[in-house]
Amino acid sequence: MAQTDDKSNRKRSQLDKRVLQVTDAVGAFIEYWGFKAVHGRVWALLALRREPMAQTEIAEFLGVSRSLISGSVSELSSQGLVVPVGDHRNAPYSAALDVWPVIKDVLRGREWMLLESTRLALESAVEEAEVAQSEGHDVPWDLERMRLLLSMTELSQALLRILFAIGVPRSMEGFSEWIRKASSLITTFRSAAGA
Amino acid sequence: MAQTDDKSNRKRSQLDKRVLQVTDAVGAFIEYWGFKAVHGRVWALLALRREPMAQTEIAEFLGVSRSLISGSVSELSSQGLVVPVGDHRNAPYSAALDVWPVIKDVLRGREWMLLESTRLALESAVEEAEVAQSEGHDVPWDLERMRLLLSMTELSQALLRILFAIGVPRSMEGFSEWIRKASSLITTFRSAAGA
DNA sequence: GGGGTTGTTCATGGCTCCCTGAACTTGTAG
DNA sequence: CTACAAGTTCAGGGAGCCATGAACAACCCC
Known about the structure:
- The structure is a homodimer.
- Chain A is mainly alpha-helical.
- Chain A is 72% helix and 3% strand.
- Chain A folds into two domains: 94 residues, Arc Repressor Mutant, subunit A (Orthogonal Bundle), CATH 1.10.10; 94 residues, no CATH class.
- Chain A is built from seven helices and two strands, in the order ααααββααα.
- Chain A has a two-stranded antiparallel sheet.
- The first copy, chain A, binds a DNA duplex through helix 4.
């Protein structure tokens, strides 16, 4: 019995290591998108779990302090990426798998703002440069290039707007069909655009 | 004459301020994509200039040290985002406006690797979990969700692969047509996918 | 109601990274 | 050839951020 328990434990810890590799990979991925790595690790861990987990459990599994998990979970919870299961105070948490709305919000919130501020600055600069040039000043700026950058910014905003309008399948069943259609349409697009 | 010179100078510095706002905006945008802000500022400045600029000139305009510009320019140059004009040693630099190849390289280099490591980790974890479960162990992991995440990773890789295949117009003339076609195709796609 | 557990808050330490200024090398003009 | 300007390199200062653990509050079970 001791042997099988031992074997079972070893097997479990082996599995745990694999899962930890997953959480780390997701964490690294998420970190590159401007979030904190621990957010990705917590989310991935909860996403793979059959049952919701308490904060202490999460902290022990990931090998970090409870205080770190506390902050991370509250932030993730406010974004709707994890949800408490049960209505009592110390309810364990489970992951929300529908991440597309959150991604959309993030893109809308920060990418859009960055593009918009660029666009506004470019617009002002173009106007100012046009005035200066019409007054006969020798401006060292290339008006054509300024307008090119402005167009590129507007193009990016247009693409972002389109992206916001795109829906993704809620369940897994639609994914392969979704990607198949996307592929064929992109192919069509490529030949149509002549790129 | 002193008056007109004064007026001219004020007008120029006003224009310079506008341009600085543009470079800062581009810098902030670029920074959010994991690059250094100063890279975006240098590139934007050179992109708007009619004539190529020497490093000292760039540093003075942006209000930073020459040493910072030296490193930034050499990195940008190695990526082909700025190019020296002339073959002598201290040649001034101009910006390359065709940034899409660089973006593609970046996405290929890092986003792909992050996705691939996630995929591999998930694959291993799924296999391990399947073995453990088939041996009758009570694994706390949800195999279905693991496979879901695996599919999501593969979907992302597929989309990324498609993105690599997309070309963008080299000149400005094609942009509006390009975005028009993209819009209509996405619309088609939305109704086809039933999102 | 008290011990133990879980979750939260906050000041601290440590780490990373960016920018700078000084020293140095290279190039150029008189 | 010499003096100056442009570019490069590098150690160090400084800012920002992340994770920790200790202290505190809330809760549960006996």
